Amino acid sequence: MAGILILLTIGLPWIGGVLVWIAGWKRLAFRNTVQLQNSLAVIFSAVAGVASLVLIGFATSETVIRIPMGAYFGDLTFIPNGMGVFLAAVAAVIGSLAVIFSIDYMRGDPEPGRYYFMVLFFIGAMAGLVLSGSLLFMFVFWEITALCSYGLISYYNDDPKAVAGGIKALIITQLGGVGLLAMALFAYAYFGSYEINVFLAKAGSLPVVPLSVLAFGMLAAAAAKSAQVPFHTWLPDAMEAPTPVSALIHAATMVNAGIYVLARFYPAFAPVPYWKLTVITVGVVSVVLAALMAMVATDLKRVLAYSTISQLGYMVYAVGVGGIFASQVHLFSHAVFKALLFLGAGAVIHALETREMGQMGRSRADLPFVRVVFIIGALALAGIPILGGFWSKELVLEAGLSDGPRWAYLLALFAVGLTACYTFRMVWLVFFAKSTVQSDHAPHDAPLAMRTALAPLAFGALTTWLLAGPFSQLLSSTMPAQPIEPETTLEICLSILRAPATWLALLVIAAGLAAWWGRERLTWLTKRLSWLADWAAAGFGFETLNRWIVERVRGAAGDLAILQTGQLNWNLVGTVAGLLAVLAWLAWVIY
Amino acid sequence: METTIFPLIFAVPLVAAPVIYLTGRLGWRLNKPILEKMAGWLSVFAFLISGIILILAIQQYNASGPQTVMAEAIALRFDGLSILLAVVALGLGSLVAFYSLAYMKGEAGAEKYYAMLAAMVGVMIGLGCAGDLFNLWVWFEAMAVSSYLLVVFYRAQPASLEAGVKYVIQSAAGSVLVLLAIALVLMQTGTVTLTEIAQEATAVPVLLAAGALFVIGFGVKAALAPLHTWLPDAHMQAPSGISAMLSGVVIEAGLIAMLRALGPLTGINGRGYPAATWGWILIGVGALNMLVGNLMALKQTQVKRLLAYSSVSQMGYILFGTGVALYAGQLAGAQGGMFHLLNHSLMKGLAFLAVGALMFAVSQAHLPGAVDSSHAPMTIAEMGGAAQRFPLVALALSLAVLGLAGLPPLAGFMSKWQVFVAGFDTRSLVITLLVIFAALNSVLSLAYYAPLVNSVYKRKMTPSMQNAATISWTISLPLALLALGVVVLGLWPSLAQWLTSAAGKAILGSFGLGTFGW
What we know:
Number of domains of chain A: 2
Order of helices and strands of chain B: HHEEHHHHHHHHHHHHHHHHHH
Shape of chain A: globular
Low-confidence stretches of chain A: none
Mean pLDDT of chain A: 88
Oligomer: heterodimer
């Protein structure tokens, strides 16, 4: 049964994607092509979402599907363990909500076939990634998600920024992916199998050096995919994608793939010296730097992008200190409220036709429905009780306080205040500030399809925390290698409320909110810190680093081009030189 | 079946070549255009017949193993490697011939094109079946001559002639080195038959020098860096079907000739130089090819030049895989290298044919019905918006190019993966690091492949695309078939396993490695 559900969760979106593409063929000329494509996309993604939810009930730690793929490729296997089924459900359910939202958001787009194909292909691949039991096929699905992400970021091919953003995202995530590729190759060459269970079992027998290489390689892959410092520069540029894509891929699912592999392989790599410390550092640095960058950004989607980097940093930090459960709970609540915020932002951007917060404000963004759901999401992001974001963030901080270094905890706590501050700033600028731009007509509030997508997410942001208990039981029963204990929701909530760290965090949040509210009185501070603001706006030098690397490579290409003289004499010199080189090598080797 | 039929596989196209030429020429002479059209169809027909004979020969091979034919001193041998080269040459050749029916319609001298194409395919299959060095050299030269004539097909354009001259001179330089090597081998062992050379080979410097000369001599044709400099010009100026053949089969044939010639030098029972000697050279050159090809391709704005450098880079993976197999004596590298050879011919062939389709449509726009032979080079920017009017061509190009970059679920990923697995399997630190280097090169290649995809999927069409003529189904059909192949092999790589493992075993056997004897 689990096997069939897995095949449905992965296969239905793929089949749906192909059908939507075919439906758009000009030769077939249906009477109402766009409506047909919309319906197909929604139906297939919704059924896949249902299948993924049912699959949760069948979670197990065993391999349920095994298809041999030929020599050197191992078997295509799937293991529906707790982490996998939960992330697959997140991908499929939020995926179907994003598809529903797209009906209104992409209205008027001339190529819905290409769009829906890539979104649906992505949903299936993401589910495949987290359910995969083979390192090779996990890598294959990983690459497919990168391909779809690239295709959707550069969806508006005529916009050079979008194209550049897509290629940047593709290259950075692929570079990191080499770490995962090395892991899969190593597993096959040294353990004889791509199976993740085999790897987890045998990793302990490896000597320190190869294990460290694998551990740090995988960390690089995860950091690139989850946009952690220093590989984070692609995510803000990825905001050129249509907003439902930003919600699905760059908030709720693909960026979580990095957290997923970190958590999944934690038991194997935790003993490596300095690995956990590096993970903690990467996480905390991302948390703080991204929060600072969010404070000064003026593009609504970029604020959300930096916020995503920052919250992912919390998850990475949690894994680093060994709080696997905390990281997964925060992943879940973040997926819901960040998708909510992105889709809400999408509704605002669609209505006001701008992404700059400076051009929004009270009289322009008079969108009651959107305002309510957006504020719900913002409250969750800031960590206000009793929303999901509060509980999950507190779990992370507690794990950090009890199991991690003090400096990391203090930085993470500080960033909690920053988070509250920039979130409040964002909500204020979008909905409550005085508008600088006047519009001649009242903007339309979210249309029906958008509301259909936003409402369940808002409901989720309010209530997902109730599932924390059953979730811990699911994880501990299906993933014996992980350090997770089963508890009930009440136990979890009480332990959070009793911890002093919680009340400290709430104080910091209150300080953050007050800082924005009373910002006029803090101008002496903002003037002092303007150097920091400028540095943050310039991306803390990472953008410059990216540009430098690109220029170096282009320079190398240019230098090499000198050798391609186009003149026959030089070409023949090359031939003779090659011969001499080979003869010299042979002489050296043999004699 | 008792009779050996494999020589017919190359005999049919070779015999068909003059028939095709005469048919077309007569048609021109007697002013009967139907006969000119028949020239093209005849070549397609000849390839199909040859293909049927190939299938029968494969069945014979499956039943009774490799076959040899000896006539006086001429030896012909049909083994896994011959099958692979025949499949690739006939497969791509027939698709290119079919594609050219529309592409070369009305071109003056089209009968020469089809005749040379048939001859080239026949000669390449013969090269794969060569059982002695002299035979190998003759087929190799014949391939050079026929491909040269095809490269300079547009003889009215000076750039085309320049490319041809560079190609033929560099090719001749390589051939001279090969001839020198054959002379050295003959002097040392007293024979040119491959199996007999293996009996006589010992570890003497003469044979080492011969091996180096083989590597460089055949390496010019196989586009080893730094011998690859003829490639970009030749690909640019040739008709697109011939660019596809050059990248898809000719350079691969060069590599296969090299492997055939080097194999016997290993000798029996390790009396000659070990295969690893040649293995390390191929590994090193492979790594160099990947980097040089990628860096040069980054700077290109003309699509066909970009694809030519991409071929240099992709040859790197084939060389690397084969080199690893020779170093370690395992099948995985050879099989992976041969799988990548097969996939590369599919994907690169598809890419060139797709770009050619766009170039053809643009050239037809100005004077509908008449033929514009200027064939100005297509730039990446000029292809902008192609998907609006030519969705199949754009999709085909995207699949080809993303497959070449090694993205799953396309064929290129599967073959590159096999090469990488082979590399890690050797447990050698240097080779493991080179595998990582190769993977990083794949990522780098995305930097020039991805913009092609982005360009064709623009919403706004460039004037070239807007005014371009429609593309006929005879051009679209080969594209669709190749695209299907790229996707299918990506999802079910085991479909090609019988072919690639047979070829891999043949390579290892010829070097005396493993248990795969001659």
